[in-house]
Every structure is written in C-alpha cells, then in structure tokens.
C-alpha cells in the first residue's frame, strides 16, 4: 500500500515538476498581474486582483517545488539550499512575530506569508529553466508586461488615463505622476527601471534593423515613463544599470575579441545614452519633472550631520530607517515580524509622540533586517551575491561557445542590477516584487550551477580513469 502511494506520488510529481511547466507558471504569473489589475479597474475595483493572483501563485509554486524534490532527491544545488533558508527565516520571523495578527493578515499593502512563498517559488522555478527557448519565452513575457504597462503609463503622464491611483490619488493626479498598473509612482519607479534595462539590452543585442527600431522606441518610452514617475528612485536604477551595461560590453569584448561587435554595441549604447539625456533634459526643463529634486539631494547629503536632517533625507526615508534600525537590538535574532515594519513604530514607548508610522522600510535590505533579523539579511545578501557572480561567470565563459545563452543571461543580469540598486530606496510590494524574483532565478539557472558534491564525484571519476 505504502509503496503504491509512493510510486503514484513520484509519477504525478514528474508530470508536475517539468521545465515546461515551470516556464508556464512563471509566464502566467508575470502576465496575469497587470492584466488582472486592468480587469478589475474596469469595474472600479483597485488593488484587488494582484494580491490574489500572487497568493494563488504561492500555492501553485509551493506544490511544484514539493513535486520537484519528490522526484529529485539525489542532486541538490546552492539555489535549492537558498530556497530552504529563505523559507526557514520567513517561518521563524512569523512564529516569533511581535504582532502575529498583523504578520498574518497584513495591513494596507503589506505582503502576506503566502506572497513570500510565491516569490521563493518563482525564483526556484526560474532556476529550473535551462533550455534557451524557454528562457526566451520568459524574456518575451517581460516584454509583454512592459508593453501592457507602457500604455496606461503614457496616458497617466498627460492626465488622460480614466482611472485614479489607489494610493495618494490627489498627488498623482495633480502632478501627473506615472504609476503604470501598480497604483503608486514609487512602486512603478522600481519596475520601470527593470523594464527600461530589459529593452535597452535587447536593443543592444538585436540583429534585424526592424527589431532594433521597435526596441529603441520601446526603450525610450520606458525611460520616459520611468522619469515621469517623479521619483529619484528611477534615477538610481537607470544610472546604475547603464553604468553596468557599458562595463559588461567591455568585459564581453575581452572574451569575444570582436572589434565589429564592440563598435556596434558602443554605437547603440551611445545612441541610447544620448536619447535618454535629451528626454531627461526636456522633462526637467520644460515639464518640471524632478524639478528641484537634484538640488534637494545635494543639500540632503551636505546636511546629514544633525538628526533632523537625517530624518528628512530622501523624502523622510531617514526617519523611517532610523525608527526601524532602533528596533534591531531588541529583535536582532528573529526580526520584529515578517513584513511587520509598522510594529517597529508601534511597539515603542514614545509611539504616541511620533508624527507618523510606516509599514515599509523604503529600503529592502533594512526592511529584511528589521522584520526578519540579522541572519535573514546575511542570507539574502549571500543569495544576491551568489546569483550575480554565477550569472557573470556563466555569461563570460559561454559568450564564445553559446552566445545566445550568454546574451540572455546578460539581459537578466542588467535587470538584476536595476532592481537591486533602486531597492536601496524602495520597498518590496506584491505587484512589483514577483518580477524581480523571476530575474533573480534567471541569472542562476541550474545549467550554470554545480550541484553539491560535484568536486568529490569529479575526483572519483579522475581517480578511476
């Protein structure tokens, strides 16, 4: 009886946990997030579908992950280990939460435990996508999502979008801040840099003239919408990925040693950079986008000495960071509670005297430190570094042998840089974070990793031969 159940479990697990199904799971999740929001907006329902879609993805992704481990019990990779540690720290933080009710049920735009399961599952699914055609399908899904978001974004920038922003509607309408289908300009600023990075890299490596023109136009629209969010976050992400892109071009050239390719890539890069510069100048000079924000930033850095100046840094991000960091000594081991940043304000004895509270850290790394603890942050940073260097190593090594695969990895690496840099000043939210977790998995797919025990088995083979 037990044997029969075991055989059936393995049989169905093999059907569920396939590379094709992992790819389908990723694509459907990415595309349904914006489409779901459009479907509910038509019925004047705001920010309703996206949490539910990611919730569903959490259950489906978790089942697929379990199915994978039922069928693959002999070979484990570092990304599998990180899946376990991410889950473990999330469980510990939830179990030892200072306010379990808030951790479980959330508040406003908090992320639920099942949303974290969706993030981890999306990353895990992406690591199991090894074939080039499936990677290209996922890249095409990102282009589709970019296109879906561009249309409302452009309309929002001129005040022609018929719906309002769910969060801080008056300011968005008055300033014509772009928020895409995310309901907040800060939210959209984060993924808009990812979309811009995606289109920029696709343009740099495109082959046909027609494709180049289409991607160039899409890239300019992405950048226009990104700056039209009216946030300095967008500048951080765009500047960082552009710097990384040109470094990557030269690193690839050192391996390829093709002067014609280098000349082509630099020419296209220069064209993008010049176009971005023109758009930025026009938006700042004639449309007041980010008007005065650059001077404000310089002033904030110059006056960081006093507590009040630090608190006001980055549109009062300093205040949010300070309150969160002051809770760390009391909750350094397990954090104050999974995505429970608001409790860092509310548990204080002087809470009644504080001007206001905030449910997000506006810095993803500080947010993890405060809500999940020191070891959770170390684990997350280790994951980011491992993913980045795995992607870089595989891209540079395979650029001559398997150029198409290397190019796809380079595109995802640039998207990775765009998100992780802007994350220093932004928050993880349910309608934007899924995109990053897919990117995170795509830069360290298992055909670029070595399983645990690889060196030992290699030595055994060499000794036998």
Descriptive overview:
With 465 residues, this protein is mainly alpha-helical. The protein is built from 20 helices and no strands. It is globular. It is a multi-pass membrane protein.
Question: How is this fold's topology laid out?
Answer:
Layout lengths: L1 H15 L2 H23 L7 H23 L6 H18 L4 H6 L7 H15 L4 H26 L11 H7 L9 H21 L3 H19 L4 H25 L2 H29 L5 H10 L4 H25 L11 H4 L17 H9 L1 H25 L4 H20 L10 H10 L11 H11 L1
Helix pairs in contact: 1-3, 2-3, 2-7, 3-6, 4-6, 4-17, 6-19, 7-9, 7-10, 7-18, 9-10, 9-11, 9-12, 9-18, 10-12, 11-12, 11-18, 14-16, 16-17, 17-18, 18-19
Subcellular location: Membrane
Pfam families: Wzy_C
Keywords: Membrane, Transmembrane, Transmembrane helix
Q: Based on Cα principal axes, name the global outline.
A: globular
**Proportion of residues in helical segments:** over 70%
Element-level helix/strand string? HHHHHHHHHHHHHHHHHHHH
Radius of gyration, whole Å:
23 Å
Which residues sit in consecutive blocks of at least 5 with pLDDT less than 50?
none
Tell me the number of strands: 0
Report the total helices: 20
Pfam families: Wzy_C
Protein name: O-antigen ligase-related domain-containing protein
Main location: membrane
Transmembrane segments: 21-42, 48-69, 81-98, 113-130, 137-155, 187-205, 212-229, 235-253, 269-287, 365-392, 404-422, 428-445
